[in-house]
Amino acid sequence: MDAHNSTKRLPLYLQIKNYILDEIQSGKLKPNEMVYTGQSLQKQFHVSKITTEKAFQFLLEEGYIYRIPGKGSFVSGNIEDSVVMRATPKNIAFVCPNLKSHHILNILLGVEEVVSENGDNLLVRVTQGSFSLQKEILHILLERNVDGIVFYPVEGKYYDEELFRMKLTNFPFVLVDKMFDKIETSYVISDNEQGAYEGTMALLNKGHRNIAFFSQYAPTSSSSIRARIKGFTKALHEVGVENPYHWVFDSFDEEVGVHLTYDEEHRDKFIRRIRSFIDQRPGITAVMAVSPGNLSHVVRGLRSVDAQFVKDVEITVFDIDEYLDYSRVPMLTINQPSKQIGIEAAKILFSQIGQPESIQKLVLPMDIKTI
Q1: What pLDDT, on the 0 to 100 scale, is given for residue 328?
Q2: Which helix (H) or strand (E) segment is 214 a member of?
Q3: Exposed site from 93, 120, 216, 325, fewest CB < 10 Å?
Q4: How far apart, in Å, are the Cα atoms of 144 and each of 91, 128, 138, 182?
């Protein structure tokens, strides 16, 4: 049947809408089957993308179709009941420890881009690095019936009943930047091991052999820290370096989840440990800082040893951030695709809302460059 022969007097977007509706009601397009692409309809009806999008929007608002970002439009499962399916925008939450990090802010921008394109609402909640506040925020969001959560968890190995509640009830949530050891979940992370490996090899290829790795968190507290240490040591072992002073860690109360960012006492303790570490191990020519915030403490620790030493040592840092001193060049950076992490996490979350039992895991490459 030529779609142009019917209801020619109707606006083109309504002709397209009615054409798709006829296909659905006749059974040619079945529940959860993908609807024709915008490009094919544009070609068939000789119209612009704006016209087909308007037709899709009417079908969406009336509940005949639903959309999965990055995949397309699909026929709703129950046509009689689907009128309420997309009439009200979904409420998506982004939960994170802080909004001071460029990495976290760029993840948020990626999530917001997808949520906005989908016509839904985004709620942002900040845990301030506290396990107790994280637990309270998750509880409130679940009680308020948000439709899904993109979740950047507090550093540490602490688990609470809200996390297990989300898992046991198949509540849609996607981790960003972290993985859980005890809970099988969807996540989007960077390839921290490979990034650390490539960054360390770059230092080794410059002739550095005495390289220190500094982190304000112990490896037990963070999957990303563990992966970075693994890549760091892998590179050292490959070139036969048996370095007696690979790293120094500080720790925090894993039952409370206090970030050094918020605790001056812990910051000062970490800086003192860095100075002690350097004093006891002369000959270090390069350091690797696990984050930009971490780097600010490392530089203060190095400066407390000797003002010239902090200028001579080569610094490598994970991620570019507002904490970095760009006047010091060159500086090797190992960068996460932060915005892409947010985009991919939001896409996975929307697909989980349609299929709550699905688990998707995505690891994105990091970018090594000198600034």
Answers
A1: 58
A2: strand 211-215
A3: 325
A4: 10, 21, 10, 26
